[in-house]
Write the structure tokens for this entry.
Amino acid sequence: MDTAKALELENSALKQELLESNLEKELHETLINAVDDPLFLINGSGILLKANAAAMERYGFQKGDLFHGTIWERLPPTLAKEWKEEIAKVIRKRSENRFQFDHGQRIKELLIWPAFDAKGRLSAFTLMEKDITRHIRALERHNLFQEEEACTDQQMLHASTLINLGTLVAGMAHEISNPNAFIMTNAPLLERLWTDLLETMDDRLEPAGIQAGGFTYQEIRETIPELLRGINDGASRIDIIVKSLRSFSRPDPYGALVPVCLNAVVKTALLFLNNEIRKSTKHFSTDLDRLLPSVAGIPQRLEQVIINLLLNACQALPRPDRKIILSTRTRENNAILTVTDEGCGIDQESLDRIFEPFFTTKTDIKGTGLGLSITKKIVKEHHGWIEFQSEPGLGTRVTVGFPAMKGE
């Protein structure tokens, strides 16, 4: 082998090694920045060695602060002292530690992991800050429910079930989001690699008449981009569903009212009920007013209203050939939502008691008798109104109205 050929091979190997190194670095950066919670790597003096996007934004770090600025200068003195004490415990135990602390009106948890060098010496610390305010407030409300003498056993059971369900859903969302982050990171990289390799493969493989998996090269060339797009679209849909699950499982009933479009809330609620609706009816349709004004509300609470009403409509249908129609419209400066079903209907005596806690017209295990009671409470919290029109054997129409925000 002559010198020029050897140099060419060596140069090609170096380029490949550089490409793999850059891809690995890009993957690492994307993964840590996909974490919503602030994540730091500091040395024993508190110098910032690495931080994800959430940490940089939360504490006002710039890229130039790496290896220069300390985390301590960004914290209040009392909080910095508390963090240092917890890190000292990690040094003594040589194992991870976690502790809670108050930061303004929020309750946080700091997780600390020690990092060791090749000789087993402690060289740095990884810190992750998590906001656990909603979790703690939920536990406090749960304990308050337990202390209320007026609470019935059924109310206590329902409150506990909702809290546990919220925790379970949040945990499931977290477990799903981690592998999905790998998919969302790797699929675009594969797409770019495929695009970069196409020109070379066209020159070499197409004339050779290569086949793989029963496909010709031309079919492979056309199919792979479609498969990659499908993977990207599927991962994006999973990401939307996971974010909706997190939001729904951790609502803040004491949160500030914000401008909300009921159409957007409807679309989010349908993500949760898509399977239930498909099982219940072959004729589900929506008619959403594109000019619907915004209302002042808490999106997660309004989602619960729509979910409750749609579930009732699904459970009322005797056969899948019956219809459910969900519509929105504007009427007299109000945003109106209507759910109409061709279900079994409700007699007048039951209709008069429809909002009573624990009253249900369902004789099987589907009904708890709390859905509409909770729905009415949420509607009233949003200064709205709700009314039922029903006829046994013909179906039910539920109309909910909310005042439009001023200026809408």
In short: DSSP finds ten helices and 14 strands in the chain.
